Fold this protein.
Amino acid sequence: GMSIKRFVQLFVLYFLSIVIAVPLTNLLKVDNALLSYFIISVVGYVTLTLPLTIMTIKKEKIKGSVFMPEYADNFKATGMINALIEQFNQLEKEYPNQQVIILDEHQQRIRDIKKINSDFIQLTLDEAMPTIRFIHANQFNLTVKVT
């Protein structure tokens, strides 16, 4: 919606467009009325739209910089899980006669890992009764161990 701040900005720019365009046209000593209206319109339009365009671009950039990290981190959880699985598979190949397990930071065995979204990971602990734990990608602290 239209905020009061935006409304005031528009008014100030509209006012400036007239204040700049009219004296500029008078300065050029244009006698033809139609030509002077045309010059006022063009100069006024540029004065009005240029700052608005710049403000919009700046706003987009601010928005962009806020959302870019989220976009860049979109595969954070996926990347971590994929790296873990890769490591797991590599160790299973290297130690075919051993058991390769995944442990959390409390040395509890993990039975299953699922990505919920870019930030959250679901861990199913290998216990008598299934226990589900959710961790943030920043807390990702799992160990692949050969036993």
In short: Residues 65-74 have pLDDT under 50 and may be disordered.
